[in-house]
């Protein structure tokens, strides 16, 4: 089964101590996500680096529920050190303006063009962007695998509930080690 790795929101906003949405536990996923990217890159598996970015000075529906964040061109919107496309031929960037990396982006089209049948999801935050992406991946007909030790949230109880829902209704939970085997 052809697989793609989707790396969600590994940006300064969440991971850098000066980030506007920083939470200390975010750092716990960095090493595992880096291992997944390296394994995928070594084997030519498509890697999709997803960035949450919003436009300065324009209305954005997301701001009805959240403060303005990850403004394009700003520090918070940039990928955290060591993340984002590195120039390898199998890596792309998808910019999203909502929680799901699929909503109003070309992600499903890109994955279908690569003949991907399965997606491996990692990144931040489990109960928001990872969950929304998992749900839309399932709705778009992809087999969904979420790397449970390569995603987390600042709301641990919501992360746990989201992982339970993902496993029950949308896909399966795997460890970094299991994902590394799938990606190689």
From TrEMBL:
Pfam families xrefs: Isochorismatase (PF00857)
In Gene Ontology terms, what is one molecular function of this protein?
hydrolase activity
- Asked whether the keyword Amino-acid biosynthesis is assigned, the reply is no
- Isochorismatase-like domain mapped to chain residues: 3-178
Task: List the InterPro entries hit by this protein, alphabetically.
Answer: Isochorismatase-like_dom (IPR000868), Isochorismatase-like_hydrls (IPR050272), Isochorismatase-like_sf (IPR036380)
Question: Which keywords does the record carry?
Answer: Hydrolase
Give the protein name, as stated in the record. Cysteine hydrolase
Organism, as annotated = Hoeflea poritis
């Amino acid at each position: 089964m052809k697989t793609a790795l989707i790396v969600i929101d590994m940006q300064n906003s969440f991971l850098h101590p000066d980030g506007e949405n920083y939470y200390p536990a975010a750092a716990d996923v960095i090493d595992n996500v880096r291992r997944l990217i390296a394994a995928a890159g070594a084997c030519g598996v498509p890697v999709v680096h997803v960035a949450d970015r919003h436009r300065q000075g324009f209305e954005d529906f997301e701001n009805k529920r959240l403060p303005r964040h990850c403004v394009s061109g700003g520090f918070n919107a940039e990928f955290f050190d060591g993340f984002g496309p590195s120039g390898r031929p199998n890596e792309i960037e998808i910019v999203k303006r909502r929680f799901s990396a699929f909503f109003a982006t070309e992600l499903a089209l890109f994955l279908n063009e690569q003949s991907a049948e399965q997606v491996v999801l990692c990144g931040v935050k489990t109960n928001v962007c990872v969950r929304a992406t998992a749900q839309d991946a399932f709705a778009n007909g992809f087999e969904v695998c979420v790397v449970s030790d390569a995603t987390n949230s600042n709301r641990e109880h919501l992360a746990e509930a989201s992982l339970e829902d993902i496993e029950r209704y949308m896909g399966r939970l795997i460890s970094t080690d299991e994902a590394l085997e799938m990606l190689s």
